[in-house]
């Protein structure tokens, strides 16, 4: 489906911000992650592609 331009894939992503201080969560990605190009890089959000789990609905995962 990712290869088919007739479909749009939603990618969940969350940014956490402290309402009082205005600070945004930033973290450094681990070297052991799946995407080598992101190893050691900083991120301001948590998210990414969602993989289907056989026998589970999104509410049960």
From TrEMBL:
Source organism per UniProt: Gemella haemolysans ATCC 10379
Protein name (database record): MutT/NUDIX family protein
